[in-house]
Amino acid sequence: MPNALPSPIKKLINEFTKLPGIGEKTAARLAFYLLKQSKEELGIFSKTLAELKEKIVRCSICQNIAETDPCPICKDSNRDKSVICVVGEPLDMVALEGTSEYKGVYHVLGGSISPVEGIGPDQLKIKELQNRVEKGKDKIKEIILANNPTLEGEATAMYIAKLLKPLNIKITRIARGLPVGGDLEYADEVTLSNALKGRKEY
Amino acid sequence: MPNALPSPIKKLINEFTKLPGIGEKTAARLAFYLLKQSKEELGIFSKTLAELKEKIVRCSICQNIAETDPCPICKDSNRDKSVICVVGEPLDMVALEGTSEYKGVYHVLGGSISPVEGIGPDQLKIKELQNRVEKGKDKIKEIILANNPTLEGEATAMYIAKLLKPLNIKITRIARGLPVGGDLEYADEVTLSNALKGRKEY
Fold first, then answer.
1. CA nearest B36 in A: which residue?
2. Which residue ranges does chain A devote to CATH 3.40.1360.10?
3. Using a CB-CB distance cutoff of 8 angstroms, which residues of chain B are in contact with residue A51?
């Protein structure tokens, strides 16, 4: 940004550009938008940012972020503790919760195995999953691997499947196929091939 | 966002969605990105936000936001005070400064006349421009109307041109035509017609 801008704005633009997917132009638009807001509004935003990490802990059971340990889902007596759904990130869990279909519990790995980014199994909560499953072996009926359908997600799912195999618990992988509203014409080959392989009888 | 998320994150997502062009998914992505940052980083961001308005004043000459009054440009003895470039927003001025071609001073209106949004001449710094030009009449040689080439910008430029006409100062409007890198094939009719009308001899 040229020197023509006052430094408090330049600083805020700089902070915004650190965020993923936000370039200099978007950052400037956001900063100028905020400049038009009241001091109270800015104060609330500022306080929310400062307090973000203060009230958040990690659930010692599912490794998800939460305000309490155990988290509300792990504490909920209505959830089926015999099914564990393994996801990469907290938002993946949020997406699954959005379906209101799943009544089991979760395990949040904190990402996917990605040698390119230097993320190995040790950087994820895989050891914690292993311990959790070993301890609850008698009560756990199924482990659903809901890792992302990406290269990294598939690799992570495969790694976990191998790791947990000796425990003799049913391990499943979420279905891969054509998304609702998708178009065969525009689907990539791997998705189409998955859709064919996973076909079901009417 | 579903209730599955801890409230500090939900609050931050909520703050982000208030910003222009940021939907719930982007807001969630930003909030989770920030959750991974250190407390220090968050503290700096938070402080920058809180202090945004504290150190910013309005330049009493050009009406632009600045850290000092008059602003660095109005104070600069190397700038040509006899040419005033009228722009809508501070970022328009920043864009013009980016060309390093303009050596005059500015007047920032704070927007464009837009009856739809309830913005009339009184909500803009037009009165201030009029006073400024009237006071400096003998020294001012040209007023460049660099309002946006939108309906609202054109209306604002026309309004100002009419208002200042009695003062008998040269009033110009920035050229409208095809942008560099543009393609005739995809240009709209008005732009093309402007490009034709504004043609120049080699």
1. A53
2. 79-201
3. 8
What is the distance of C-alpha A199 from the center of its chain?
28
Place of tokens 């040689």: B141
**CATH number of the domain at A7-44, out of 3.40.30.10, 1.10.8.420, 1.10.10.60, 3.90.280.10?**
1.10.8.420
Residue range(s) of every CATH 1.10.8.420 domain in chain B: 7-44
Please report the ipTM that was assigned to this predicted complex.
Answer: 0.78
Residue count (chain A): 202
Task: Kindly report the nearest CA distance between residue B201 and chain A, in angstroms.
Answer: 34
pTM: 0.76
pLDDT tens per residue across span B137-187: 899 999 999 999 889 999 999 999 999 999 999 999 998 888 888 787 888
Chain A interface mutation, best of B24, B39, B53, highest count of A Cβ atoms under 10 Å: B53
CA A146 to chain CA mean position, Å:
10
Tokens of A177: 């196929």
Residue of B nearest to A1 (CA): B94
List CB contacts of B81: < 8 A, sequence separation 6 or more. B104, B105, B136, B139, B140
The pLDDT tens digits of the residues spanning A103-150 come to 999 999 999 999 999 999 999 999 999 999 999 989 999 999 999 988
Distance from the Cα of B106 to chain A's closest Cα (Å) equals 12
Q: Given the structure tokens 């650190």, which residue do they identify?
A: A18
Q: Does domain B79-201 have CATH number 3.40.1360.10?
A: yes
Contact B11 A46 (CB under 8 A): no
